[in-house]
Amino acid sequence: MRFFTALAALLLVAGPAMAERIKDLGHFQGLRSNQLTGYGIVVGLAGTGDDNLEYTTQGMRSVASRFGQQLPAGVNPALKNAAAVIITADLPPFAKPGEKLDITVAALGKAKSLRGGTLLLAPLQGADGQIYAMAQGNLAVGGLGVAAADGSNVTVNVPTAGRIPGGATVERAVDAGFATTPELRFNLAQADLTTVGRVANAINASLGAGRARAIDAVTVAIAAPQGAELRTALMGQIEDIGVSPADAPAKVIVNARTGTVVINGAVRIAPAAVSHGKLTVRVVNDLRASQPEPFSRGQTTVVPRSDIAVEEERRPMFRFDGGASLADIVKAVNAIGASPADLVAMLEALKEAGAMKAELVVL
Known about the structure:
Blueprint: H1 2-12, E1 20-21, E2 26-28, E3 34-43, H2 54-66, E4 82-91, E5 100-107, E6 118-125, E7 131-138, E8 144-147, E9 153-156, E10 161-170, E11 184-188, H3 193-207, E12 212-214, E13 219-222, H4 228-239, E14 242-243, E15 251-255, E16 260-263, E17 272-274, E18 278-290, E19 301-313, E20 318-320, H5 326-336, H6 340-352, E21 359-362
Parallel strand pairs: 15-21
Antiparallel strand pairs: 1-14, 2-11, 3-4, 3-6, 4-5, 5-10, 6-7, 7-10, 8-9, 11-13, 12-13, 15-16, 17-20, 18-19
Helix pairs in contact: 1-5
């Protein structure tokens, strides 16, 4: 229960909201990363490849044809040392040709491990089907897989996926488009009507009245001169403007798998009474021998015997006054010694009773 007490103390001493930079609240429209994917072949594996998968064989035939080599018709290369893989990468905004990207490589077929493999040159495509980078390099695999002839095996982490730091080279830049749009648009990471209005007001206070206006709960439109150079300087100036974001809405986050409960400082409890108890029933089965009377010609038999005990842990009912804060909730929970599972049950009951004005999110 010390966790809940410490959490309450941290939130209570936090004080009023601090000013944050606009750049920490969202991003300008168009300045985003783009996902790249590709198909490739990893070679140099120690017998842990795809073996006879058809698409791996086709891939190797394609690789051989690049160098003028043709495999004879009907010949199966039995590629135990090669594997077909899927390659993924993120192309950051303003990435220029020649820059390096980190890539992730994952086995597509039956390969048992990619450890020690080398990725052959493979193109990476964007959502539009255009090639934006070329990938190649030696894999760094954190997992380990070992198999014996009798079928037993040991696997540590995931040996069928790895990374190549700087394994791709950018071949084409992506036009962000911010230099030619009628106006700049800044999008908040989280929709909030109060915060988006404060961002617009802060920009107007810094750059002049009428320069920015809130379009909806996410977007602020900003009048800007044409040209990439002028707009880049303007965006840098806007990103450093300080804004006090609105208080977060009242939320209770519950992770049902781990029993973790997080309550933010905006949660309030209406007048309510809570009773929490625990009933334990124990049943113990035992076998005992029953002996007949002397000279009665009876037989010894085994008789089952059951002992039943009922224990009820009595805990008093406690009451929340109107406007109870996070500190009051934690104090009450600590007083009755409730576990995280018990706390979840109480919060769900308070929400159902209408006494807790907060959003309950179960992960």
